[in-house]
Amino acid sequence: MSETASTARAPVALLPSLAPLLHEWLPRRRWFAGKGRPVTGFALVSATELLPLDTAGPGLLHLLVRVQQPGAGGPPTPPGDCYQLLLGVRDTLPPRLAPALIGRVTQGPLAGRTVYEALHDPRLAAILLERLRSPGTIGPLAFHRTVPIPEGLVPRVLDAEQSNTSLVYGDAYILKIFRRIHPGANPDLELPLALARAGCARVPAPVAWYESGPGHPDGAATLGVLQPFLRGSQDGWQLALDALAAGDDFTEEARALGRATAEVHTALADALPTVTLARPQARHLAVAMGRRLDAAAQAVPALLPYAPGLRAAFDAVAALAEQGGTWRAQRVHGDLHLGQALRTPRGDWAVIDFEGEPSKPLAERRRPQPAVRDVAGILRSFDYAAHSHHPWQAEWAERCRDAYCAGYAEASGTDPRAEQALLRAYETDKAVYEVVYEARHRPDWLRVPMAAVHRLAAPQDGAGAGPHSPGRARSRRPRLAPDTLT
Known about the structure:
alpha+beta, Aminoglycoside 3'-phosphotransferase, Chain: A, domain 2, 486 residues, globular, six-stranded antiparallel β-sheet, seven-stranded antiparallel β-sheet, 18 strands
């Protein structure tokens, strides 16, 4: 693999000197995707001094590093995941920055100096914004902006994220820094830019971004995106939980969110190419969902009794395609749930975080898909909210699901429930994914997706109905009694 460096400090020796520290520090990061597998080595992709390391003050070092790990079946899987690191370098670390410590370097060009997570140092985090304020290139990095950015905005790190890191500057802007880097345009930049050009106000328009330049050995890749910070907004997940706790109805909010989702989808379909899913594509979709179900049932045996009924949802899509059914596919959010929707102080809904599922390849996340995939994500999210309340609020979730779909239909002219086969397939695929996730990470929550599995595996009237196929009868959804969840 090629190596590039714009540091003034012997780049060949830089990574070996940092490797012992990174071996300990990197696997403990929440955004590190290779947990559970040993780190066998590192390869330097690029090194850039955003603030010189040979001054009396702190230095700021930007690294792109490939992490070499064995694959699930044994030998290393080349070339390994690439991660973006921003490291501060000081002779001595002030006590206020002690939680950001990575370690003290014992050899190489940084021997005797202390290395730490730079984003927790306001002085160094401010340097990153200054680079965005002044478009241009620094070594292999390119900085862009669309509008002037004020100076002197005080940074702070948000601690809530898992797969990325975000900085808020003066409660005016939020900078999302992607940690696991894939070559190509990240949808979290690409789609909001397209929506801004289309005049869609439901998504904060990118103000600035930075990337590895086209001359980079791995090709251009989005590294970070700066957008307006929607100060005072509340996410839909917390709003739903608050409504449940207070015993309040949430259908008006759900209906408004449905309208907002439809507006985003309409704007994306107008701004970017759409395609038609016919027999080959639908067959591929059904086969992929079936394979994920097989793998999930092996990992979580509790799924086995439900597997035939769940597979029927995928087979119904393939059968409709065999009969000549087609569906439109377009660019979508890809990971939509209540936590990705913000209600602003004005009472409007905004949609954020268009990155998609970070664990999936970038090419897959950028692939056109039916809009009901996003709808299914929100419907599952209403189920999760209802199950988080004791006792389980099944009717609350059902009302919210119906209101959301009705609002979507008001804004788009198409009711997602009319695409019953495809909607059920995506809901089923999502629930299967949730079962595996909860079994591995939150066993106490496993009952939530298992309740959906019980419902979705039951025979459903009109389950084969689709937008371009005969028969559109809406299914009756069997209810799972609350006492079966305990």
